[in-house]
Specification:
The complex is a heterodimer of chains A (about 70) and B (about 400). Chain A is mainly α and about 70 residues long. In chain A, about 55% of the residues lie in helices and about 5% in strands. Classes of the chains: A mainly alpha (about 70), B alpha/beta (about 400). At the A-B interface, helix 1, helix 2 and strand 1 of A face helix 4, strand 7 and helix 10 of B.
Amino acid sequence: MLLLDDEFNLEQAMEDLEKIVRELETGKLPLEESLALFEQGIRLIRLCSINLDMAEQRIESLTGKLPEGLC
Amino acid sequence: MTQIFTVTELNLRIRNRLESDLHLRDIWIQGELSNVVNHRSGHRYFTLKDRECQISCILFRNHGMRLDFELKDGLNVQIFGDVSIYGIKGQLQLVARGMRLDSGLGLRHLEFEQLKQKLSIEGFFDLERKRTLPIYPRSIGIVTSPDGAALRDVLRIIGFYPAKIIISPAKVQGEGSEESIASAIKALNSKTNVVIVCRGGGSDEDLWSFNSEAVARAIFECDAPVISAIGHETDFTIADFVADIRAPTPTAAGEMAVPDLDEIKQNLCLLETRIIRSLRSSLERRQNKLDYLTLSFSARRMYALLTDYNQNLAYIGERLESAEKGIIMTLRQRLEILESCLAAVSPLATLSRGYAIAMSLEGKLILGPNDVIPGEILKLLLLHGRLNCMVLDEEKLK
């Protein structure tokens, strides 16, 4: 599933999002493009939110075992 | 005959020898404290050392009472006392009678300054070299002891942030800790966006490995920006100077490493509002334009246009008319002028004075008797009309 993909890049997503909003706010785009951008923006927002809510920790240790109950 | 001593006798001899040697009495010795033991008896045992050597020391209770500072490992001190031997153990020791803190540069301090100087020349502390931390790190490396409180402090902060956390365990104090820390930093190479090197508070000695060249070099060469949080807020190590940014505590290091989640979520909400609003306003703009166009094509609009045209037409007509009138007026005026000009030269004026003009029926002016024959009908032009007359007689002018 894309949402849980390790490759999801929050920084990139936030950047893209800012760009989309700025472009939409110029109000100079044809309707079709506006709608496409809008959809993309909303999808990115959902992705970011879900990504941020993933409290599940991914901690690994380079050597040896970690003590229990680290977090 | 060879004299044979008991151990006690030997130690006594040594003791006498030591205590009678003025070079070993009432002397000042400087060095660094370690293995400090505060005994129940009130005596204090410790070791004084420099880079190469060490000597056992004792500070008896009666002398120790006057001290105005606590003995701690790693402290640089100057001791006043005598060299002696503790007979029972056969152990050489320095009996301290007075102590003061070494306010001058202790050996370690000297080493610290030398290393700092050297690394400074190599550009380790250059501000231009400091890298900025990524706003949204995807992978965070932590170099610390896996059992320390520092690790828990950091994880408590960054734990909720959705980044991969790689712990690179290190021995943070004691024998071999320098190499351990340095290699733990190196092990994170090309694996993370940011590295936290941290350790909880401790004595200067505990933190000392963070003043080593090996650790400094590892931080310097680390491919990700390094946040250092070593010891307490007041502790500054070489590692702190080399790091891209120093955090006062491990908790603060965690806060620096990741963005504030609530803030991002708020920002996301804001972006969502903006995106929706801008689409809505874009749609509204189009609707308005459509409305406007619809209005432009309505019947009422057409009538209005027609009325406009009619008005224009009427106006133009009026202008045309008045222009025409103007032209006629001008013509009339010109005519009157011409008329009066004409009147000035007209024979009518002469006629009004009683003269008459005689003409043949063909209209030829009669100027004398030669122009007519008797019996011819002449036209006589008078002021008020014309007479046809017959020539009866002629009389030439003489």
